[in-house]
């Protein structure tokens, strides 16, 4: 049952991510990207990570993509003329296929498959997913967390300085 | 009853389908009659009678409106972006309805020895005597609310009309600005309840210990921000009829227009239900009446409040709206979060 559901969601994810690059209309591409993010969120739910799923939808699908669509609408970009069969497309798809092959090969032959990490499913259910993430962020990963927040603050200050005429 | 399907008893599936059907039909009926109530209440507040002709005191008005919209001609503008134009009303309507999946609307009820929690996305562990629900319920609601904006933005863009586009742009900017303040207002509730599960948040407010009393500032800010997020007066700039004809739904007609209308009212009901759950004690109330009754009563009171606000206040100007969101509500909620943190760390422990 779960694997059938996974296959359906995976198919939607693959199709919508192909549409992102093939759609001529930029708004339709952006919407396909939203769909892809949504499928990713579904995968997070299936991996017992509902918090990740919710943040994925709130941050990526809800905030960043709205801003992207906002910009597309403001610039009023209409249907783009897509050049077909250029060398860049060929090279890109070759690299993509190579990476796909490598990933599949690693999963089939490598030593990564079937390993159980520190956080098991039982632990997530008994302690709680949000609690585990909170504890990890505020103890083990405190320094990266704080550095990221300083970086974001700097970005905000920079945006204000760029946008404001008089300070 | 004891046969298992995918590890869960048959009764679980029956209860689930029943809950979904009852909640959905109830919300649809409330949407229909909220339109009637709005016209009636605003009518009386403005010393008019409101609809009076269809049925007794106009009680059949929502049905007449529905039939009228259903039989109207469907017009798609020739320069419109067809797919986005068709999909936009659905994108607006669906998130408005699915938020109800995590809202607890009553106490557990027991039918024939089988206990059912009155919350769609939850199940009762019969052996462990414990309710399991979505443990990020509040974030789920925020996520769905942030998806609702796509319907309006798409409608504005796809119509290929200046008025619609401006309505869509206004709506996107407004929703993004107020989402932040609303989210920060809820954070102070999490800090007190120490959980993201709506079941736990409601359970914490038993016996009149409502979060509206502990977090009055968060309650007021959350409710006002929610009004802005669902484009209700005094923040209904995306469809300001004096400047933008009808905003993002200018080019829509027939059932598609009706869908936007339904989405607007469904959003209002969702916001009132979420506010009830987070701040007004959910289904808790004096024990002589069942929990779901108190829940519905509180939600209806908040809906009445929305209509009362609409009849009272004029519309905000756009720069005032932005200033209120970013320069008043955002700092206030941040201060509130800091104060709550201080209280949790040093005073309550």
From TrEMBL, chain A:
Task: Look up and give the membrane topology term.
Answer: Multi-pass membrane protein
Highest taxon of source: Bacteria
Keywords, A to Z, come to: Cell membrane, Membrane, NAD, Quinone, Transmembrane, Transmembrane helix
**Cell location:** Cell membrane
Supply the EC number(s). 7.1.1.-
Protein role = NDH-1 shuttles electrons from NADH, via FMN and iron-sulfur (Fe-S) centers, to quinones in the respiratory chain. Couples the redox reaction to proton translocation (for every two electrons transferred, four hydrogen ions are translocated across the cytoplasmic membrane), and thus conserves the redox energy in a proton gradient.
Family per similarity comment: Belongs to the complex I subunit 6 family.
Supply the name of the protein.
NADH-quinone oxidoreductase subunit J
TrEMBL record, chain B:
Q: Which residues cross the membrane?
A: 12-36, 83-105, 138-159, 180-202, 208-228, 265-285, 291-312, 324-346
Record membrane topology: Multi-pass membrane protein
Establish whether keyword Oxidoreductase is in the entry: yes
Record bears the keyword NAD = yes
The protein's predominant localisation is membrane
Give the Enzyme Commission number: 7.1.1.-
| Reactions it catalyzes | a quinone + NADH + 5 H(+)(in) = a quinol + NAD(+) + 4 H(+)(out)
> Taxonomically, which superkingdom?
Bacteria
Subcellular location per UniProt equals: Cell membrane; Membrane
Q: What does this protein do?
A: NDH-1 shuttles electrons from NADH, via FMN and iron-sulfur (Fe-S) centers, to quinones in the respiratory chain. The immediate electron acceptor for the enzyme in this species is believed to be ubiquinone. Couples the redox reaction to proton translocation (for every two electrons transferred, four hydrogen ions are translocated across the cytoplasmic membrane), and thus conserves the redox energy in a proton gradient. This subunit may bind ubiquinone.
Similarity comment: family membership: Belongs to the complex I subunit 1 family.
Q: How does it assemble?
A: NDH-1 is composed of 14 different subunits. Subunits NuoA, H, J, K, L, M, N constitute the membrane sector of the complex.
| Name used for this protein in its record | NADH-quinone oxidoreductase subunit H
Organism ancestry: Bacteria, Pseudomonadati, Thermodesulfobacteriota, Desulfuromonadia, Geobacterales
């Amino acid at each position: 049952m779960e694997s059938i559901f996974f296959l359906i969601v995976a198919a939607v994810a693959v199709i919508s991510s192909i549409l992102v690059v093939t759609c001529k209309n930029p708004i339709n591409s952006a919407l396909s990207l939203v769909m892809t993010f949504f499928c990713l969120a579904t995968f997070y739910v299936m991996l017992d990570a509902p918090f990740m799923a919710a943040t994925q939808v709130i941050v990526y699908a809800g905030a960043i993509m709205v801003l992207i669509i906002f910009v597309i609408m403001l610039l009023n970009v209409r249907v783009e003329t897509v050049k077909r069969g250029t060398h860049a497309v060929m090279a890109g798809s070759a690299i993509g296929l190579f990476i796909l092959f490598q990933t599949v090969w690693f999963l089939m032959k490598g030593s990564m498959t079937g390993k159980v990490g520190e956080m098991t499913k039982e632990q997530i259910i008994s302690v709680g997913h949000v609690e585990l993430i909170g504890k990890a962020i505020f103890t083990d990963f405190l320094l990266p967390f704080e550095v990221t927040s300083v970086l974001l603050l700097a970005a905000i200050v920079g945006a204000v300085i760029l946008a404001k005429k008089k300070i | 009853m004891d046969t298992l399907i995918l590890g869960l008893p048959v009764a679980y599936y029956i209860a689930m389908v029943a809950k979904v059907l009852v909640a959905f039909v109830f919300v649809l009926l409330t949407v229909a009659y909220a339109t009637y109530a709005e016209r009636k209440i605003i009518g009386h507040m403005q010393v008019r009678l409101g609809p009076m002709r269809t049925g007794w005191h106009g009680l059949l008005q929502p049905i007449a409106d529905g039939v009228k919209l259903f039989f109207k001609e469907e017009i798609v503008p020739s320069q419109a972006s067809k797919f986005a134009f068709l999909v936009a009303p659905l994108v607006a309507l669906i998130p408005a309805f699915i938020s109800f999946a995590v809202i607890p609307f009553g106490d557990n009820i027991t039918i024939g020895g089988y206990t059912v929690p009155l919350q769609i996305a939850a199940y009762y562990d019969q052996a462990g005597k414990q309710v399991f629900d979505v443990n990020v319920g509040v974030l789920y609601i925020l996520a769905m609310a942030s998806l609702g904006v796509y319907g309006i933005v798409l409608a504005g863009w796809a119509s290929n009309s200046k008025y619609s586009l401006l309505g869509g742009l206004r709506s996107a900017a407004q929703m993004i600005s107020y989402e932040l303040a609303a989210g920060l207002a809820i954070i102070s509730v999490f800090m007190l309840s120490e959980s993201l599960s709506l079941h736990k948040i409601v359970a914490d407010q038993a016996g009149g210990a409502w979060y509206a009393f502990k977090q009055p500032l968060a309650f007021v800010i959350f409710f006002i921000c929610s009004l802005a997020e669902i484009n209700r007066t005094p923040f209904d700039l995306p469809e300001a009829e004096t400047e933008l004809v009808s905003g993002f739904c200018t080019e829509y007609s027939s059932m598609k227009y009706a869908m936007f209308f339904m989405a607007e009212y469904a959003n209002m009901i969702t916001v009132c239900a979420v506010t009830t759950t987070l701040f007004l004690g959910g289904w808790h109330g004096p024990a002589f009446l069942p929990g779901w009754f108190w829940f519905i009563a509180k939600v209806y009171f908040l809906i009445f409040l929305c209509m009362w606000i609409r009849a009272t206040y004029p519309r905000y100007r756009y720069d005032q709206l932005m200033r209120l969101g970013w320069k008043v509500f955002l700092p206030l909620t941040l201060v509130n979060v800091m104060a709550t943190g201080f209280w949790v760390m040093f005073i309550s422990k």
